[in-house]
């Protein structure tokens, strides 16, 4: 393991589930393990603030680059990005580390995968914190059918065609592509007719208030190396995931969970997230649930790092106190 120049983050690689996963780690090796799962277009680096806070509290923070991202393997087959593959990677990583149970903290696509990790393998999760993406139970039809009605301008629809988004992204340098996504503050990511989503999104000329130019450069370096096809394949198997998860129709998530909902996140109102969460719909599917609604946009763990850290630690502390009183 090699220590990062900043000091306490270690980096290592594990061969699991037929691929190589790069993992960043911080905190005592004997501390309670917290698995941090990033989203799109992100890396383990998205958890830098949480890793520091968790390590300071005595937790062992483990943040992999998911398959297709960063320094992990990038399988060429689009079908290799299904929910079974990603959850399989995570379970195999826990086996590699000989961890029977972990806490899970996840955001965006990572939150989607975390919910399914809880659903498929509740025996491996002590408790989960999901940011931005609630658990939606499998419906009678694929979400892709509903998205089709939104039109071609909707970013998820544009991501479906192999090569389309990659070609449009290539008109910009990688740092600009990332900055366009990181700067999103609109409710609906829908481009006008005939316009590619990456052309519609704007990149501010000034640095992001919650990310240094050096940090942006670190992201850009990795995406320059791997490209965007692996990450985009997560969107391209959404229909496949719906078909694969048929056996869990109607199943509830029994793992204790906390959902952190940013008020200005994508689809907060337009996609019905606010109504679903605040009306009790989410809690009906995740009975042992806490909900916290906070100010902020999509990349909340970086934008509002201190608040998110406090929300995570206050939730995890409950389990430490339970163990102490047991």
Q: And the CATH topology? A: Rossmann fold
Provide the residue-averaged pLDDT.
94
Quaternary class: single chain
- The CATH first-level class comes to Alpha Beta
Number of helices: 15
- Name the strands of the widest sheet in spatial order: 1-2-3-5-4-6-7-8-9
- Write down the domain tally: 1
Catalytic activity: (24S)-24,25-epoxycucurbitadienol + H2O = (24R)-24,25-dihydroxycucurbitadienol; an epoxide + H2O = an ethanediol
GO molecular function, one term: epoxide hydrolase activity
Keywords: Hydrolase
Protein name: soluble epoxide hydrolase
Descriptive notes:
The relative contact order is 0.14. The chain has 15 helices and nine strands. It has a single domain, classed as Alpha/Beta hydrolase fold, catalytic domain (Rossmann fold). Helix content is 40%, strand content 16%. The two termini are 36 Å apart. It is an alpha/beta fold and 326 residues long. The longest helix is centred in the last third of the chain and has 21 residues. A nine-stranded mixed beta sheet has the order 1-2-3-5-4-6-7-8-9, sandwiched between helices. Belongs to the AB hydrolase superfamily. Epoxide hydrolase family. It is an enzyme of class 3 (hydrolase). Keywords: Hydrolase.
